[in-house]
Amino acid sequence: MSILNVSRRKFLKQLGIGSSALVLATTLPGFSPIYAAENETGNAMGAGQASFEVEKADHHLNIFVSLDTDGTTSIVCHRSEMGQGIRTTVPQIIADEMQALWSNVYVVQGQADKAYGQQNTAGSSSIRGQFTRLRQIGAVVRNMLEQAAANQWQVNINDVNAEQHVVINKITGEKISFGDLAIAASKLEAPELTTVKLKAIKDFNYIGKEVKLFDLDDIVAGEAVYSHDVQLPNMLIASIQRPPVVGGTVKSFDDTEAKKVKGVVAVIQLKPHTFPFRTNPLGGVAVLANNTWAAQEGRKKLKIVWDNGENANYNTASFSEELIKKVNQPGKSVRSEGDVYAHTYDPARTVEATYSVPHINHTPMETEAATAWLQGTDKSATLTIWAGTQNPQDAQNLAAKECEIELKQVTLNIPLMGGAFGRKSKPDFILEAVQLAKQVKVPVKVIWTREDDIQHGFYHSISANYMKAELIDESNVVQGNNKVADFWIQRVAYPPIAWLFNGKQTRPNANDLSLGFADTPFQLDNLQYETQEASSHVRPGWVRAVSDINNGFAQGSFVDELAVKANKPARQMWLELLGDDRYVDLSQGGFKYNNAGLNLAEYPVDTKRLKNTLNLVCEQANIEAETAENEGWGISVIRSFGSYVAAATKVSVINKKVKVLEMHTAIDCGITVTPDRVIAQMEGAMVFALSITLMGGISVKDGAVEQSNFHDSPVTRINQSPPMFVHLVESEHPPGGVGEPGIPPIIPSITNAIFRASGIRIRNLPVNKELTV
Q: 94 near 132, Cβ under 8 Å?
């Protein structure tokens, strides 16, 4: 890592700070340069701010800190903000180690560039994957400021200490502000990483504390800029009629009536993309107009004849039945310990169940939108994009290929996102805007309607999970054997996301299977985990929690069924299955455990933390207290994305109508950087999981999605949302994920509660197929 005194003028303009500033730009080792971009006024392109004249600066920057002589500290956030608070949390970590005063911090949204390393804001990875590195960035800047002050006082650096935007002389008590040290500090070389000492946890100023969201005032005032808000001179709005079936193409179309709509400027057929589909646009016909209404009205008047292709035979009803049949037959082993097939099962002590989950859509409140502007030609061309995207580098790379220009000619600005949940990691909607801008030579904004979002998305795959286990015969238990069950079999079948990219992948890979399936940390001797094949007929995609959704539902439900069979409280069943406090080696039995990409030594699978989290939620919710007639509690727990989450839900079921009365979650995510954001994420997980469990699901008939808007693809409403409580486990372990881990245990906690209240066991989601919600 090094600190560069970068060329000032353009960089200062990008940050929007005074010309007197001296910049300390932090560069991480092993990464290539990033170039800052300015708009025609010389101001920073913030969240969605339009840039009309893009100029490439000659500064080599990365994740960086800049310091003005008046003390203003600008910190870049290199990840995308979609409501999770990352634009506050990243600077919060850096500012803490830097000993900056939070009121002096200004946050700058980083643009797409490989110099940042991995910018993909997904997999609950932003903090758990970069916590130490972000701290090092702040510590390096703090060290340089302390060295500059020590030089001025002619004392050893150990005799000074940075604290709340000043450096203090520990001998004399004198103080020098960070701003007054900016010039001197910028002339110093950065220290080696090994010589920079990070703060002790007890000395954190902001980490673990409540910090106001950087964008909060603008969001509340309605002044925050999202992708839909981007406005450019001479911009056209595009509304696109896409093939109703994935892989379908346009045979012919008549745009006569569409062009009669006032405001319609052009009708353009988009190029189709054939199998494998990857994250490319689906094709179709676009209507371009000078306003949104005209574009959408013109689209309604298109007359298109489609060739729907081979996927027109796809129906989810029959496909789900096929998956259920498959998982009830032996499959391909991915983890095997002991021998589950040589054993003769006792029906009196054996539980066997199959669970299914339908396709699920992301349904962010802000639908997809992107603006693109291609200026010039060939080597002089510049492509500027404004899009709320979770994966800006991927979008930038694909856009460059689409326009046949170099990566450095593409500037991708990242506005705020009104939700994403994995949907906006796919750049198809961005590439649609790029394709159209390439043809019309003016800025084009593509806007997806709610119907577009529901009918043409990337869906969580339809799935089936099979579970079988035999309870121990407690009358014959050998003394010292605390096991409650043995001979455990699991199978799963669903179209994997990898199918999207190569078409040959018909089974989930080790990464998929490390999400709540073959990573079961139960203390059993005989285990068998198997997969079956399944091809996709819609575009599968990462939905919040990914395969933890169906795996968590199956596992959490099955443990409850075992508890009922054994006539034990559900909590006791979980604790006995988890067994002794220990670190679990999941690489046994041939399984290539992924651990969400985390170092296993730093993030071991710890059953003690799982049990503690489960006990906490059960005690806080008081689940063992007597409930009224027709009421019941359901619980579940999981380790997901490096964190431990437990859920408890209370429901009533009267006349086959479900009412959710109370919901609790407990999370041990290691060091909690911003507690309020963790609480908000868990509350969001409860709402998201309620939608999936009670009424979520996408059905397909003759290849086309049947749902179209909230009337038939509903999300949780206020009247369906019960009191929600989040309990945080104090921990000094490294940070785990937060955005996704809440979903998997919440889903079965709801259905388990339904069983406890009514005796009705829900094995096939959503609930509203069987009960009124």
A: no
